[in-house]
Amino acid sequence: MVVRSSGTSEPRPIGVFDSGVGGLTVARAILELLPHEPLIYVGDTARFPYGPKPLEEIRRYALEIAESLVVRDVKMLVVACNSVEVAAIDHVAEAHGVPVVGVIDPGTRAAVHATRNGRIGLIGTEATVKSGAYDRALTATGTDATLFSRACPAFVEYVERGDTSSEELRTVAEGYLSPLREQGIDTLILGCTHYPLLSGLIQLVMGDDVVLISSAAETAKDVYRALVRSGIERGDPHPRHEFLATGDPARFQAVAEVFLGPEIAEVRAAHLEPVGGGPWS
Questions:
Q1: Residues 70, 81, 137, 206: which is the catalytic one?
Q2: pLDDT tens-digit map of 85-106
Q3: Which of 21, 22, 130, 166 has a 20 to 30 A CA-CA distance from 159?
Q4: What's the pTM value of the predicted model, to 2 decimals?
């Protein structure tokens, strides 16, 4: 049953978080689709990367960030990180009384719609690939498509350094992606929110016949649907956004501006407390 909006404007912001700058691809898609919605974005750059870490550790980090955002009175949480989603999205949803939106289901749905031969590739962090979350999401769609997965952990580190085109990176990409190309996939899920920032390179290696699927746009559509169904969308023509990093704010801002432009206003430091503590200062 769809709950219709009451027509009132809900001023609280949407909370979006990731291990670093990658989730800004999701934030950007949300801002484009919902330009009147204020966002609070947290990049956990002090503890980046998440992918190689144990799921229990990722889960603890996610719960800390989610709690700090809820203390800031966000009306929704967007888990803009595949590694966090596989480790903690159910725990985040259970812990807080706000809608929670992830990136895996939207990306999977888009890939099923895009594939022509039923051979879908997935690239992601080690945590995402090992979890089998995309395999389960694909099965849940009822399709008979086959998923071929590869972990590409170094991609995140290159993005966080602002490198999208070096010769070294191209060599790494060829090593990661050639086995998927040989499998004859026609669709490739970019199963990490950092990876769309490498889409030019990935397309070059995979060839123009392979459709690249970023979950960002589809996730933004899910955010829109959740806001409308809950009646908590906002109509402010001049929303105020906040961008925070647990690591060096200046470094985060420099990389973010390269990829997403000067709209990334001042980035402040986020000082997280353990679960049960208060918000950052």
A1: 81
A2: 999 999 999 988 899 999 999 9
A3: 130
A4: 0.87
